[in-house]
User: Fold these one by one.
Assistant:
Number 1:
Amino acid sequence: MKVLASVSLVQLIVQLVSARKAIRDRIPYDIPFGQGKPEDVGRDMWSMGSGLAAPWHTLAVHAAGVVLLLARPRRWVRKAVGWLGALYFLGILWERITLESFRHPNKETTPLIASGLALSVAMAVLGLGGRKRCSGTTN
């Protein structure tokens, strides 16, 4: 669980850096079923997030998951963080800026998006993987 906690912590940091950049550069969310306005990015971080980061409430749940993984590792916490990674992956792929960033790489956004995708996959695999520990006893 320490590896999952570490990967999850790095993903949280990437999300926070991405949120800061999105607010500073006014990068709104732009997904198939809705689009924000550049002037509303700060407000939209409370509901839909931005083009680069999940909303604040999701990041708060993510932070709580990291703390629980470190303080009281439980199977349900591992699974919850894994599902969060899967949701991050889908959310990042939905954003129009993701495709634009890979078509026309940008030295600021492309690394944030690429690392967000890679870390979300790692969170999902580590959290949802069926890896069982051998404890020497039967369940």
Note: The beta strands are 30-31, 34-35.
Number 2:
Amino acid sequence: MPRIALVTCRPGPEVAVDPDLPGLLAAVRAAGADAEAVRWDDPDADWAAFDLAVIRSTWDYSWRAGEFLAWADRCAALTRLANPAPVVRWNADKRYLGDLAAAGVPTVPTAYAAPGEVLALPAGAEYVVKPTSGAGARFAARYTPDEHDTAVRHVERMHAEGFTAMVQPYVRAIDTSGERALQFYGGRLIHAIRKGPVLSPGTPYDVRKTAHPGVRPWRPTPAETAVAEQALAAVPGGSGLLYARVDLVDGEDGRPQLMELELVEPHLFLDLHPESVGKVAGAVVEAADRG
């Protein structure tokens, strides 16, 4: 019987509780594993005692990215980590979008500026500023051209805290067609969801956002599935992926574009897709059995 850790974090004022974890834990046990939920920063955790550690809901990692990535390296040296530590490190910084765009994946245009660099802000349309290390729309905000000074202060604050800033055009189709998230587990598409716009005009960057407003099940189109599969095929070391969430929006031409590729700790939305619980549990136990 394989021993499996579903890796999570300590709940807190700014950290959501994973609603899927109890049911998934029970399903993994029912599928034939000795499974338990373990906090990634638990000083007493014996990672070598597990056959597989699956990063499930480490939803505080972007606050503590350096610590988390160091933990991923340590954990991977003691047991099998999913997703693999090099993939986690690559995906934890949203500059990966540049790599995928260079590989030909349709991607929302993105510019970056590390501390000490100047971020060129668009002058003629709405845009979004956020850190390259972030989750749940933390430190993200939507701006109009006449809010330039506020956006500059936003960037300055991020740089002062050591974050690299990024800017993207605000994709207007999000307000009408929303954002779609395609979930892959065990190498196959298991389900998808659609959610509404996260960033409202005038909402300060340092206010906590609702990360998944108006979420509901979604049937992905062939075009959406094709872009998702293209993105996954372009991931360095992607052959070792256990799970992935591919977030898509419609570009100005109406075709799907990649907004984000979540390979660290994606929300699975199993409450909307209970039929996927067994699929996820089976894929986790199969991964542990492969050794």
Note: The chain has eight helices and 13 strands.
Number 3:
Amino acid sequence: MKISDLIKEEIALAKENAKKVLANGSATMEEINAATLKIDTLEAKLQLALKEEETIRTNVAGTILENQETPTGIDSQAYEKAFLNFIKGKSTVDDQMVIQAALSSGTDENGGLLIPKDQETKVIELARAYSSLRDLVYVEPVSTLTGTRVIEVDGEYTAFAEVEEGAKISDIENGTFKSIGYSCKTYGGILPIPNNLLKDEKGNLLYHISKWFAQKKVATENKVILEILNSFSKTAIKGIDDIKTAINVTLDPAISSNAIVVTNQSGFNELDKMKDSDGNYLLQPDPTKPTQKLLKGRSVRVYPDKVLANDTTKVPIVIGDIKKAITLFDRQAMTINSTDIGAGAFETNTTKLRGLLRLDAKKFDEKALVFLQLDTAGA
């Protein structure tokens, strides 16, 4: 937290105290003058702090422009120390200079601290250990909160018109286009950290923060992706023949050849028990990955039931090229702020760390996947 922010909070408290003094009919002139003087003194300190912070920002910006260097050259250990001090609410002027030098123009306009690069890497590494749906979809990093993408529907089947010698080439006719707009929403949560833990300069604090961000990052992305996935029309199936029909007929051959099979634990259990009329199991071992299975040559991805939930007794079996079906727009601006005064932190002797993500997901091709549901009731 910046020094100016702390002074602003002190001013708010001083003004509240002044109101109480005025409301007290028996207040003495000394008490009234003291309350007024405290407010005036704090407001003067605030102006000095704001000027100092503006000077720091100007000097840092000038240094970066003069040297023509990007913030990536900042000493990671110095940034880590400044990062920890920021969380503890003990930032010095030197810490603020290190932090501000590492801030990007994409940071939240109200102020936010980017996670140090090594911490961001740890978050990504930890995220891979959880059941993330991110790898299934197409991820498009974006630099704006909103935007539009225009695609042609069934463009691969709309041919060029024949052009006679010397004739004017006409515009493509019968093309159907649709506009898909995205608007990244903000998702956030608060991590309370006991101040007793913060007394330790190092410990496992950074790991604890990275783990928390990784869990919430994955859970948030999964939620956004599943909202789109569940919007696809669902088809009830009874067994192997319906699955083969979906792969052979329902899906376009170009989609089917690149398709994968996505299901949950319950769905995998049902698929793993299926046999054809000759007694051959539907799922076959993947010779390149001994621990995984193939369904008609398509890899099978299995997620926990808690992530990809059943619809009562119906288990999900999704088949298709999901990267063509769904796009995740990632604003790539994970920001954090902390306080040890507001949001109930003062009363509980904690420092509260707030994390924010900005994401959106959209359906791009309705025909790029089939969402099958196998009812296990009575099976």
Note: The longest helix spans residues 29-67.
